[in-house]
């Protein structure tokens, strides 16, 4: 098969070989990911290792490098379609894929054939580009052939009659699908939504369902205002919840129809008698008092629910009287975790509510992600008075002119935002910046100032904050209207220097300020040498800064084993430099994944080698926390113990695959020492020069 040359350097894949994955040996594709991604990147895709020994084809919209303007794009699409077909039909190691149905229109049959003949696909995302001039063709007929599929996500997929019919048939017939996510779907009429939901009712395997609320509306553009009777789709969905015996997690997101109350009553009333759902998440919805009443009824009647989260919900229309209804939470003895948005309660009500929550013994974690910033002192005091501070997490606090002095007093405020536009002049801003340096409890900080303020004392104090806040893990810095000319030279030098000094920041976002070449070199050196900075977002007002940073980074970024994510302004303009940097990020993410699974008990050489390389990466600690559901100190302890588990000679050689049991040597006549004779101290010296990654696969 002639695949032609790749987009970037002209290198090529010379032959396509079936999967060589086997016990103790990775498929040859793992060594060639760099080359394969040179083909996939022009169409916004990338091969990654999201779990050990398994490959995933993920979407990378920011990877698109401008091939859309190239006359060779049709050939690129044809080659990528062939490569995708080969991966899915010949490689057991490819277990996850994201497929852009709209850009593969000309190769629809080849993609459907690849899906139908897939050897190991367990997770699939089908999505269409919003700006596609033509609707994507129907891929539903291929779904019933995906025998191993466990997770399916549909995004921007039009719910037309033929698709809904095929999809409903798949939902009825599948025996392995456990997770279904449907987002930004386009409904031609409510009948198709009802047809989809009826197919869902016949499904007996799904345990996690996530969807946009638009799925329950008649028309995504007309709204639900004025409707007194819930649409038929909401009634059918309520019937599904009432009778379903498999669903454990339900996520409902806001969309065009962000008013939840029109469809909430039948849904929440159904959940009251549902005896399987244990996790309910409401995201980006506009809630009203009727919704709070129904939610509290759910708390008082449901005996299965263990987790309830309200994330990014608009509760501005709810009066303070609604807080009294939340006492129903105490009647629930199964709820263990909850996230609340509470802008509608005042200081006195917060004390009563938090006391009530603290008395609920089953609740292990309560996060208040939105509250009245004017009442911050009373809210923190209410948390302190519960005697259960470790169970409460207070969300981001926006510093106001009247509450500046609470920064140092309220230790519960670990996430702080400072916007200069909230102040009447420079003095409150200067006071706030001076106090921040004393806040050892603040781990997340957002600073937003106007460009005409970012000079003199303000820029110096910001630099001092960055240098002095040794507990800071996340920093977001935004300079608004940042046309930074020569008058800002000193300010940007101070900023770049401060960022190079701080050794605690793990996630950094810089928006607005333009850096000169000297500052860009300082920032690049910081990224090269940092052992803590895992994520960077860089959006200067002048794109030339991004180009310069990529040019500096790409030269020797391969020595960095810390960087795990990077978001950039106009990445499609950055070409091969961005590709080189992103490939290192992909490698680092793969190593962290392998290392985390080694800590969790996956005992193989490749995972052990990764643990040696990235054991100090903060991202590894977070990954272990996620997998093991433990705190940071416990995760760090487990990482250390996992490294010690192969510190001895026999353990090292067994894990490396050199021996099956232990190191033994035939005796020598000359009496010279052999490997088995080396004592612990001697082996410790040797281990300084030999790593698990030095042991090669058998050829």
Automatic annotation (TrEMBL):
Query: Which residue positions does the secretion signal occupy?
Result: none
Highest taxon of the lineage: Eukaryota
The protein's name in its UniProt record: Nlr family card domain protein
Keyword terms of this UniProt record: Repeat
Coiled-coil stretches are: none
Q: What is the lineage of its organism?
A: Eukaryota, Metazoa, Ecdysozoa, Arthropoda, Chelicerata
Q: Looking at the keywords, is DNA repair present?
A: no
Q: Which InterPro entries match?
A: LRR-containing_regulator, LRR_dom_sf
User: Carries keyword Repeat?
Assistant: yes
């Amino acid at each position: 098969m002639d695949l032609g040359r790749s987009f970037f350097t002209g290198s090529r894949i010379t032959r396509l070989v079936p999967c060589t994955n086997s016990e103790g040996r990775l498929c040859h594709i793992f060594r060639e990911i760099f080359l394969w991604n040179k083909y996939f990147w022009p169409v916004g895709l990338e091969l990654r290792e999201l779990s050990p020994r398994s490959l995933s084809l993920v979407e990378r919209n920011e990877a698109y490098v401008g091939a859309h303007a190239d006359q060779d794009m049709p050939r690129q699409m044809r080659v990528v379609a062939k490569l995708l077909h080969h991966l899915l039909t010949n490689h057991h190691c490819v277990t996850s894929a994201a497929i852009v149905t709209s850009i593969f229109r000309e190769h629809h049959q080849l993609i459907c054939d690849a899906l139908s003949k897939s050897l190991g696909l367990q997770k699939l995302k089908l999505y269409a580009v919003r700006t596609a001039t033509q609707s994507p063709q129907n891929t539903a007929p291929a779904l019933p052939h995906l025998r191993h599929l466990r997770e399916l996500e549909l995004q921007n997929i039009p719910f037309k009659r033929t698709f809904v019919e095929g999809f409903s048939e798949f939902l009825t017939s599948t025996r392995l699908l456990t997770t279904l996510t449907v987002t930004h779907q386009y409904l031609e009429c409510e009948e198709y939504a009802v047809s989809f939901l009826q197919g869902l009712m016949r499904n007996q395997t799904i345990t996690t369902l996530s969807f946009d609320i638009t799925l329950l509306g008649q028309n995504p553009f007309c709204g639900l205002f004025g409707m007194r009777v819930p649409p038929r789709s909401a009634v059918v969905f309520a019937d599904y919840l009432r009778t379903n015996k498999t669903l454990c997690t339900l996520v409902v997101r806001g969309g065009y129809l962000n008013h939840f109350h029109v469809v909430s009553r039948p849904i929440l009333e159904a959940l009251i008698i549902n005896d399987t759902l244990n996790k309910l998440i409401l995201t980006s919805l506009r809630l009203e008092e009727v919704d709070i009443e129904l939610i509290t009824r759910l708390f008082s009647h449901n005996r299965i629910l263990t987790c309830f989260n309200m994330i990014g919900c608009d509760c501005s229309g709810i009066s303070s009287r609604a807080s009294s209804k939340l006492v129903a939470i105490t009647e629930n003895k199964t709820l263990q975790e909850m996230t609340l948005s509470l802008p509608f309660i005042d200081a006195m009500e917060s004390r009563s509510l938090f006391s009530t929550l603290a008395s609920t013994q089953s609740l292990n974690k309560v996060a208040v992600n939105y509250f009245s910033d004017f009442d911050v002192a009373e809210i923190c005091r209410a948390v302190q008075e519960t005697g259960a501070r470790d169970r409460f997490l207070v969300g981001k606090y926006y510093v106001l002119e009247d509450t500046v002095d609470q920064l140092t007093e309220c230790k519960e405020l670990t996430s702080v935002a400072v916007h200069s536009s909230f102040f009447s002049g420079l003095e409150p801003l200067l006071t706030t910046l001076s106090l921040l340096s004393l806040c050892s409890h603040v781990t997340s900080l957002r600073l937003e100032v106007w460009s005409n303020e970012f000079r003199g004392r303000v820029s110096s104090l910001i630099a001092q904050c960055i240098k002095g806040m040794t507990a800071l893990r996340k920093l977001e810095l935004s300079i608004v209207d940042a046309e930074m000319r020569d008058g800002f030279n000193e300010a940007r030098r101070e900023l770049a220097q401060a960022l190079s000094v701080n050794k605690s920041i793990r996630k950094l976002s810089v928006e607005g300020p333009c850096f000169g070449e000297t500052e860009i070199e300082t920032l690049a050196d910081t990224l090269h040498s940092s052992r803590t900075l895992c994520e960077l977002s860089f959006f200067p007002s002048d794109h030339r800064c991004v180009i310069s940073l990529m040019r500096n980074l790409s030269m020797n970024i391969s020595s960095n084993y810390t960087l795990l994510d990077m978001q950039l302004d106009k990445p499609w303009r950055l070409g091969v430099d961005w590709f080189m940097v992103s490939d290192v990020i992909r490698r680092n993410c793969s190593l962290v994944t392998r290392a985390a699974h080694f800590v969790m008990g996956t005992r193989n050489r490749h995972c052990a080698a990764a643990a040696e390389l990235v054991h100090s990466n903060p991202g590894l600690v977070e990954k272990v926390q996620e997998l093991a559901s433990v705190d940071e100190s416990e995760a760090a302890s487990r990482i250390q113990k996992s490294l010690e588990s192969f510190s001895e000679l026999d353990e090292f050689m067994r894990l490396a695959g050199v021996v099956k049991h232990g190191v033994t040597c035939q005796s020598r006549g000359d009496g010279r020492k052999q490997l088995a004779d080396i004592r612990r101290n001697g082996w410790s010296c040797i281990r300084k020069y030999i790593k698990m990654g030095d042991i090669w696969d058998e050829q």
